[in-house]
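@here heads up, posting the sequence + SMILES for the calcium ion run so it's all in one place. Ping me if the SMILES looks off, I pulled it from an old spreadsheet.
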Amino acid sequence: MLLKYRGITAYLLASVILVGCSGSDGDGNNENEVGTGSNQQESSSPENTENTNMPPAADDESEQNPVVATSSDPLQEGLIGPSGGSGNAGEYAQFNDSPFANLNFGDGYFYFEDFEDKVLEHPGAEPSDGDFVSIEFGETFNDSVDADDGLIDGNSLDGESWFHAVSTTGIVWSFNADELDGRLPTHVGIVWTDGRLETTFEAFDSSGLSLGTIVADHTNASFNGETDDDRFYGVVHYAGISAIKISNTNRLNGIEVDHLQWGYLPIELR
Ligand SMILES: [Ca+2]
Ligand SMILES: [Ca+2]
Ligand SMILES: [Ca+2]
Ligand SMILES: [Ca+2]
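bot reply: prediction finished. Complex structure tokens:
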């Protein structure tokens, strides 16, 4: 969060001001409260640990004034979602819709997986089940995040995602601190893109104890790559997140997810 002050009093006023963006109460009605993104046609895809959220340059009118920048986490600890974004029907449609998109992870780390290259190349995250949808299910019914095929148009059949046939068992993504410099992620997110009936999202602390669940139903009962039902679920927990689980109540239709993201926010940036 950038704060701008004029004159020498800046040093007196430059206390950190946090603007809280509330997490979800799980009722599915808080879409767009967090992570509102632009309507750009291309998604930003931070496929590495580089900080993609550098403070913007000062504009013409303020360039002579001191700029005091803080990078404090505007999110609160807890579960987030289901949240939408910049899609044609208000859905999560690109990385900029992530509540984590504007965070500066500094000397921590942030990894993002959109599954498009059919390679899980980033460290520290492992699925319990499933495979790339094109491998596990075939090329027919891919349901990726909308922008991953290069166009925000309400359809994502040409994108790639992660699919598991048994949606009631769901998919657990576990995080391995040994592969992450000994630091479990403090922020984890995933986007549900397809399935049927209720979705349950659950997160677990470093001891494997549940941090809570969100249950919501935003499915559209169609499996032809429509993106209007795509929603972000996430969790912020500074003591470390060991796993997340996402599942659906309808067993037969499988479950599909995309845009897995995990990061560690250093203490000084919280
Ligand atoms: Ca994708
Ligand atoms: Ca990849
Ligand atoms: Ca698309
Ligand atoms: Ca969808």
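MO: The two ends are 12 Å apart (CA to CA).
MO: One more: The chain has one domain: 2-269.
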